[in-house]
Amino acid sequence: MTSSTHASSASPTIGEQRTTTLRFHDNHLLQHLVGDHDRHLARLERHLDVQLVCRGNRIAVSGNPASVEQTKTALLALYQQLEQGHMIDGEQIDGVVRLTSLPAHRRTMPTPRTHEKKVPSSQLEDLPSIRTKRGNIAPRSHGQAAYMAELAQKELVFGIGPAGTGKTYLAVAQAVAMFQAGQVDRIILSRPAVEAGERLGFLPGDMREKIDPYLRPLYDALHDMMPGDQLTRRMSNGEIEVAPLAFMRGRTLGNAYVILDEAQNTTPAQMKMFLTRMGPNTRMAITGDMSQIDLPKGVTSGLKDAVTTLENVQGISICRLRSEDVVRHPLVARIVDAYDRTPHKTPPSFLQKRP
What we know:
The strands form three sheets. The protein has a six-stranded parallel beta sheet, sandwiched between helices. It has a four-stranded antiparallel beta sheet with strand order 1-2-4-3. The radius of gyration is 23 Å and the shape is globular. A hairpin with a 2-residue loop joins strand 3 (51-55) and strand 4. It is of the alpha/beta class. Helix 3 (65-83) packs across helix 4. The chain has helices at 27-34, 39-48, 65-83, 90-99, 142-153, 167-180, 207-225, 228-236, 268-275, 302-310, 330-341, and strands spanning 5-8, 18-24, 51-55, 58-63, 130-132, 135-137, 156-160, 186-191, 240-244, 256-260, 283-288, 316-320.
Protein backbone atom coordinates (compact mmCIF):
# COMPACT_ATOMS: atom_id res chain seq x y z
CA MET A 1 0.00 0.00 0.00
CA THR A 2 1.37 3.41 -0.91
CA SER A 3 1.62 5.65 2.10
CA SER A 4 -0.27 8.92 1.81
CA THR A 5 1.99 10.70 4.27
CA HIS A 6 5.62 11.58 4.43
CA ALA A 7 7.97 13.59 6.59
CA SER A 8 9.51 16.72 5.16
CA SER A 9 11.33 19.89 6.22
CA ALA A 10 13.04 18.11 9.08
CA SER A 11 15.37 20.63 10.68
CA PRO A 12 18.71 19.61 12.18
CA THR A 13 18.75 19.00 15.89
CA ILE A 14 19.37 22.19 17.86
CA GLY A 15 20.55 21.26 21.33
CA GLU A 16 17.90 18.91 22.62
CA GLN A 17 15.14 20.16 20.31
CA ARG A 18 14.12 19.03 16.83
CA THR A 19 11.27 19.82 14.47
CA THR A 20 9.84 17.44 11.89
CA THR A 21 6.94 18.20 9.55
CA LEU A 22 4.51 15.53 8.35
CA ARG A 23 2.41 16.12 5.25
CA PHE A 24 -0.96 14.36 4.82
CA HIS A 25 -2.66 14.16 1.42
CA ASP A 26 -6.28 13.59 2.59
CA ASN A 27 -7.53 16.70 4.35
CA HIS A 28 -10.78 14.99 5.39
CA LEU A 29 -8.89 12.27 7.26
CA LEU A 30 -6.52 14.88 8.66
CA GLN A 31 -9.48 16.65 10.28
CA HIS A 32 -10.37 13.44 12.13
CA LEU A 33 -6.73 12.93 13.09
CA VAL A 34 -6.50 16.42 14.58
CA GLY A 35 -9.91 16.20 16.28
CA ASP A 36 -12.41 18.90 17.18
CA HIS A 37 -10.57 22.01 18.37
CA ASP A 38 -7.28 20.07 18.00
CA ARG A 39 -8.19 17.87 20.96
CA HIS A 40 -6.35 14.80 19.65
CA LEU A 41 -3.19 16.82 19.10
CA ALA A 42 -3.52 18.26 22.60
CA ARG A 43 -3.79 14.75 24.02
CA LEU A 44 -0.62 13.68 22.21
CA GLU A 45 1.16 16.80 23.47
CA ARG A 46 0.29 15.94 27.08
CA HIS A 47 1.43 12.34 26.70
CA LEU A 48 4.64 12.91 24.76
CA ASP A 49 5.84 16.35 25.87
CA VAL A 50 5.98 17.79 22.36
CA GLN A 51 4.49 20.76 20.55
CA LEU A 52 2.18 20.08 17.61
CA VAL A 53 1.08 22.72 15.10
CA CYS A 54 -1.29 21.97 12.22
CA ARG A 55 -1.22 24.27 9.21
CA GLY A 56 -3.02 23.28 6.05
CA ASN A 57 -2.22 19.65 5.35
CA ARG A 58 0.91 19.61 7.53
CA ILE A 59 1.61 18.90 11.18
CA ALA A 60 4.87 20.18 12.69
CA VAL A 61 6.25 18.20 15.61
CA SER A 62 8.75 19.88 17.96
CA GLY A 63 10.51 18.49 21.01
CA ASN A 64 13.45 16.33 22.02
CA PRO A 65 14.51 13.86 19.29
CA ALA A 66 13.15 10.73 21.01
CA SER A 67 9.73 12.30 21.65
CA VAL A 68 9.55 13.65 18.11
CA GLU A 69 10.23 10.19 16.64
CA GLN A 70 7.62 8.57 18.91
CA THR A 71 5.05 11.24 18.04
CA LYS A 72 5.75 10.83 14.34
CA THR A 73 5.19 7.06 14.61
CA ALA A 74 2.00 7.57 16.65
CA LEU A 75 0.55 10.07 14.16
CA LEU A 76 1.26 7.81 11.19
CA ALA A 77 -0.26 4.81 12.97
CA LEU A 78 -3.42 6.76 13.84
CA TYR A 79 -3.70 8.09 10.28
CA GLN A 80 -3.37 4.54 8.96
CA GLN A 81 -6.30 3.48 11.16
CA LEU A 82 -8.37 6.27 9.62
CA GLU A 83 -7.36 5.12 6.12
CA GLN A 84 -8.64 1.64 7.00
CA GLY A 85 -12.05 3.05 7.89
CA HIS A 86 -11.68 3.10 11.69
CA MET A 87 -12.54 6.10 13.82
CA ILE A 88 -10.15 7.21 16.53
CA ASP A 89 -10.88 8.43 20.03
CA GLY A 90 -8.98 9.24 23.21
CA GLU A 91 -8.60 5.60 24.24
CA GLN A 92 -7.09 4.64 20.88
CA ILE A 93 -4.66 7.54 21.11
CA ASP A 94 -3.60 6.39 24.57
CA GLY A 95 -3.13 2.87 23.25
CA VAL A 96 -0.94 3.95 20.33
CA VAL A 97 1.17 6.04 22.70
CA ARG A 98 1.70 2.99 24.91
CA LEU A 99 2.58 0.81 21.93
CA THR A 100 5.13 3.27 20.56
CA SER A 101 6.95 3.64 23.88
CA LEU A 102 9.27 1.30 25.74
CA PRO A 103 7.43 0.05 28.86
CA ALA A 104 8.96 1.39 32.08
CA HIS A 105 9.71 -2.00 33.64
CA ARG A 106 11.55 -3.16 30.50
CA ARG A 107 13.93 -0.19 30.54
CA THR A 108 15.80 -1.97 33.31
CA MET A 109 15.29 -5.50 31.94
CA PRO A 110 17.75 -6.14 29.08
CA THR A 111 16.55 -9.74 28.58
CA PRO A 112 12.74 -9.86 28.70
CA ARG A 113 10.81 -13.12 29.00
CA THR A 114 9.77 -14.79 25.76
CA HIS A 115 6.11 -13.75 26.14
CA GLU A 116 7.02 -10.17 27.06
CA LYS A 117 8.65 -9.11 23.78
CA LYS A 118 8.58 -5.44 22.92
CA VAL A 119 6.43 -4.64 19.89
CA PRO A 120 8.56 -2.62 17.41
CA SER A 121 7.04 0.82 16.96
CA SER A 122 7.70 0.59 13.22
CA GLN A 123 5.49 -2.50 12.90
CA LEU A 124 2.22 -1.34 14.48
CA GLU A 125 0.35 -2.55 11.40
CA ASP A 126 1.52 -6.11 12.16
CA LEU A 127 0.11 -6.25 15.68
CA PRO A 128 -2.23 -9.14 16.51
CA SER A 129 -5.96 -8.48 16.41
CA ILE A 130 -9.07 -10.44 17.29
CA ARG A 131 -11.74 -10.41 14.59
CA THR A 132 -15.35 -10.70 15.70
CA LYS A 133 -18.53 -9.90 13.78
CA ARG A 134 -18.78 -6.75 15.88
CA GLY A 135 -15.41 -5.59 14.52
CA ASN A 136 -11.68 -5.98 15.14
CA ILE A 137 -10.21 -5.72 18.63
CA ALA A 138 -6.64 -4.44 18.68
CA PRO A 139 -4.15 -4.35 21.57
CA ARG A 140 -3.58 -1.09 23.42
CA SER A 141 -0.33 -1.95 25.17
CA HIS A 142 2.75 -4.13 24.73
CA GLY A 143 1.46 -6.59 27.31
CA GLN A 144 -1.91 -6.88 25.60
CA ALA A 145 -0.24 -7.53 22.25
CA ALA A 146 1.84 -10.38 23.71
CA TYR A 147 -1.21 -11.76 25.56
CA MET A 148 -3.36 -11.72 22.41
CA ALA A 149 -0.64 -13.50 20.43
CA GLU A 150 -0.50 -16.27 23.06
CA LEU A 151 -4.31 -16.61 23.14
CA ALA A 152 -4.28 -17.14 19.38
CA GLN A 153 -1.53 -19.78 19.46
CA LYS A 154 -1.60 -21.73 22.73
CA GLU A 155 -4.16 -24.19 24.07
CA LEU A 156 -3.77 -23.12 27.70
CA VAL A 157 -2.99 -19.51 28.65
CA PHE A 158 -2.80 -17.84 32.06
CA GLY A 159 -3.45 -14.08 32.02
CA ILE A 160 -2.31 -12.52 35.30
CA GLY A 161 -2.39 -8.83 36.11
CA PRO A 162 -4.11 -5.93 37.86
CA ALA A 163 -7.61 -4.63 37.22
CA GLY A 164 -8.16 -2.86 33.92
CA THR A 165 -5.56 -4.68 31.82
CA GLY A 166 -8.14 -6.46 29.67
CA LYS A 167 -7.36 -9.99 30.86
CA THR A 168 -10.95 -11.24 30.81
CA TYR A 169 -12.18 -9.03 27.97
CA LEU A 170 -9.51 -10.22 25.52
CA ALA A 171 -9.98 -13.87 26.52
CA VAL A 172 -13.73 -13.59 25.89
CA ALA A 173 -13.02 -11.85 22.57
CA GLN A 174 -10.75 -14.72 21.49
CA ALA A 175 -13.40 -17.25 22.53
CA VAL A 176 -16.11 -15.44 20.54
CA ALA A 177 -13.86 -15.10 17.49
CA MET A 178 -13.07 -18.84 17.46
CA PHE A 179 -16.73 -19.71 18.03
CA GLN A 180 -17.94 -17.49 15.21
CA ALA A 181 -15.26 -18.95 12.92
CA GLY A 182 -16.46 -22.48 13.69
CA GLN A 183 -13.20 -23.51 15.39
CA VAL A 184 -15.03 -24.49 18.58
CA ASP A 185 -18.62 -25.57 19.13
CA ARG A 186 -19.29 -23.74 22.38
CA ILE A 187 -18.02 -21.22 24.90
CA ILE A 188 -17.94 -21.96 28.62
CA LEU A 189 -17.28 -19.12 31.07
CA SER A 190 -16.78 -19.78 34.75
CA ARG A 191 -15.94 -18.02 38.01
CA PRO A 192 -15.60 -19.08 41.63
CA ALA A 193 -18.50 -17.66 43.64
CA VAL A 194 -16.41 -15.98 46.34
CA GLU A 195 -17.50 -12.74 47.98
CA ALA A 196 -15.03 -9.87 47.59
CA GLY A 197 -14.30 -9.27 51.27
CA GLU A 198 -17.96 -8.72 52.09
CA ARG A 199 -20.78 -10.70 53.67
CA LEU A 200 -23.71 -10.52 51.29
CA GLY A 201 -25.99 -12.65 53.39
CA PHE A 202 -29.07 -14.33 51.97
CA LEU A 203 -29.69 -13.69 48.28
CA PRO A 204 -33.29 -14.09 47.06
CA GLY A 205 -34.32 -15.94 43.93
CA ASP A 206 -33.51 -19.23 42.22
CA MET A 207 -29.99 -20.57 41.59
CA ARG A 208 -29.55 -18.53 38.40
CA GLU A 209 -30.53 -15.31 40.16
CA LYS A 210 -28.21 -16.06 43.10
CA ILE A 211 -25.09 -16.59 40.97
CA ASP A 212 -25.72 -13.91 38.33
CA PRO A 213 -24.05 -11.10 40.36
CA TYR A 214 -20.80 -13.08 40.45
CA LEU A 215 -20.88 -13.65 36.68
CA ARG A 216 -21.97 -10.17 35.58
CA PRO A 217 -18.50 -9.10 34.24
CA LEU A 218 -18.56 -12.09 31.88
CA TYR A 219 -22.04 -11.18 30.63
CA ASP A 220 -20.87 -7.60 30.04
CA ALA A 221 -17.93 -8.76 27.90
CA LEU A 222 -20.19 -11.07 25.87
CA HIS A 223 -22.65 -8.25 25.20
CA ASP A 224 -19.80 -6.21 23.69
CA MET A 225 -18.97 -9.04 21.28
CA MET A 226 -22.42 -10.20 20.14
CA PRO A 227 -25.82 -8.68 19.37
CA GLY A 228 -28.19 -9.15 22.31
CA ASP A 229 -30.70 -11.37 20.49
CA GLN A 230 -27.94 -13.68 19.21
CA LEU A 231 -26.40 -13.92 22.68
CA THR A 232 -29.75 -14.82 24.22
CA ARG A 233 -30.34 -17.51 21.59
CA ARG A 234 -26.84 -18.98 21.98
CA MET A 235 -27.21 -19.13 25.75
CA SER A 236 -30.65 -20.73 25.62
CA ASN A 237 -29.47 -23.56 23.34
CA GLY A 238 -26.31 -24.19 25.38
CA GLU A 239 -23.74 -22.97 22.86
CA ILE A 240 -22.67 -20.35 25.38
CA GLU A 241 -22.68 -21.39 29.02
CA VAL A 242 -21.91 -19.21 32.03
CA ALA A 243 -21.63 -21.16 35.26
CA PRO A 244 -19.91 -21.05 38.66
CA LEU A 245 -16.79 -23.16 39.09
CA ALA A 246 -18.56 -25.68 41.33
CA PHE A 247 -20.63 -26.81 38.33
CA MET A 248 -17.51 -27.96 36.46
CA ARG A 249 -16.76 -31.01 38.62
CA GLY A 250 -17.11 -34.36 36.86
CA ARG A 251 -17.37 -32.90 33.35
CA THR A 252 -15.14 -33.35 30.30
CA LEU A 253 -15.16 -30.21 28.18
CA GLY A 254 -14.48 -30.92 24.50
CA ASN A 255 -14.64 -28.75 21.37
CA ALA A 256 -14.97 -25.68 23.55
CA TYR A 257 -13.28 -22.46 24.56
CA VAL A 258 -13.28 -22.42 28.36
CA ILE A 259 -12.45 -19.38 30.48
CA LEU A 260 -11.95 -19.30 34.25
CA ASP A 261 -12.15 -15.73 35.54
CA GLU A 262 -11.09 -14.47 39.00
CA ALA A 263 -8.93 -17.58 39.32
CA GLN A 264 -7.02 -16.11 42.26
CA ASN A 265 -10.05 -17.08 44.37
CA THR A 266 -9.80 -20.79 43.63
CA THR A 267 -8.16 -23.29 45.96
CA PRO A 268 -5.38 -25.55 44.58
CA ALA A 269 -7.85 -28.48 44.52
CA GLN A 270 -10.40 -26.44 42.56
CA MET A 271 -7.76 -25.28 40.09
CA LYS A 272 -6.53 -28.81 39.47
CA MET A 273 -10.13 -29.96 39.03
CA PHE A 274 -10.77 -27.22 36.47
CA LEU A 275 -7.57 -27.78 34.47
CA THR A 276 -8.22 -31.51 34.22
CA ARG A 277 -11.63 -30.90 32.57
CA MET A 278 -9.79 -30.21 29.31
CA GLY A 279 -10.99 -32.43 26.46
CA PRO A 280 -10.29 -32.82 22.71
CA ASN A 281 -10.03 -29.58 20.70
CA THR A 282 -10.44 -27.46 23.82
CA ARG A 283 -8.77 -24.12 24.54
CA MET A 284 -8.52 -22.71 28.06
CA ALA A 285 -7.80 -19.24 29.40
CA ILE A 286 -7.35 -18.63 33.13
CA THR A 287 -7.36 -15.03 34.33
CA GLY A 288 -6.78 -13.48 37.72
CA ASP A 289 -5.19 -10.77 39.85
CA MET A 290 -2.84 -11.92 42.60
CA SER A 291 -3.42 -8.68 44.53
CA GLN A 292 -7.17 -9.32 44.96
CA ILE A 293 -7.34 -12.69 46.68
CA ASP A 294 -10.55 -12.98 48.71
CA LEU A 295 -10.01 -16.46 50.14
CA PRO A 296 -10.08 -17.01 53.93
CA LYS A 297 -6.83 -16.34 55.74
CA GLY A 298 -4.44 -19.27 55.48
CA VAL A 299 -5.97 -20.72 52.29
CA THR A 300 -3.52 -20.88 49.36
CA SER A 301 -4.66 -19.39 46.07
CA GLY A 302 -5.08 -21.99 43.35
CA LEU A 303 -3.83 -19.50 40.77
CA LYS A 304 -0.63 -18.82 42.69
CA ASP A 305 -0.08 -22.55 43.18
CA ALA A 306 -0.75 -23.31 39.50
CA VAL A 307 1.70 -20.67 38.24
CA THR A 308 4.43 -22.11 40.46
CA THR A 309 3.62 -25.69 39.45
CA LEU A 310 3.13 -25.15 35.71
CA GLU A 311 5.69 -22.42 34.97
CA ASN A 312 7.86 -24.60 32.72
CA VAL A 313 5.31 -27.07 31.38
CA GLN A 314 5.44 -27.26 27.58
CA GLY A 315 2.35 -25.92 25.80
CA ILE A 316 1.29 -23.66 28.69
CA SER A 317 1.77 -19.89 28.45
CA ILE A 318 1.83 -17.60 31.47
CA CYS A 319 1.38 -13.93 30.51
CA ARG A 320 1.95 -11.27 33.15
CA LEU A 321 0.30 -7.90 32.58
CA ARG A 322 1.37 -4.85 34.56
CA SER A 323 0.12 -1.43 35.58
CA GLU A 324 1.41 0.04 32.29
CA ASP A 325 -1.04 -2.28 30.49
CA VAL A 326 -4.06 -0.78 32.30
CA VAL A 327 -6.41 0.59 29.65
CA ARG A 328 -9.06 2.10 31.92
CA HIS A 329 -8.84 5.65 33.26
CA PRO A 330 -5.17 6.76 33.63
CA LEU A 331 -5.71 7.06 37.39
CA VAL A 332 -6.26 3.29 37.63
CA ALA A 333 -2.63 2.59 36.70
CA ARG A 334 -1.43 5.12 39.29
CA ILE A 335 -3.70 3.58 41.93
CA VAL A 336 -2.32 0.11 41.19
CA ASP A 337 1.27 1.39 41.45
CA ALA A 338 0.52 3.21 44.71
CA TYR A 339 -0.90 0.07 46.33
CA ASP A 340 2.03 -2.01 45.05
CA ARG A 341 4.49 0.44 46.65
CA THR A 342 2.66 0.53 50.00
CA PRO A 343 3.27 -2.41 52.36
CA HIS A 344 0.19 -4.21 53.63
CA LYS A 345 -1.03 -2.65 56.87
CA THR A 346 -2.94 -4.27 59.70
CA PRO A 347 -6.47 -2.83 59.80
CA PRO A 348 -7.51 -0.74 62.83
CA SER A 349 -8.77 -2.75 65.80
CA PHE A 350 -12.39 -1.75 65.26
CA LEU A 351 -12.28 -3.30 61.76
CA GLN A 352 -10.72 -6.58 62.84
CA LYS A 353 -12.95 -9.59 63.29
CA ARG A 354 -13.77 -10.58 66.84
CA PRO A 355 -13.04 -14.16 67.89
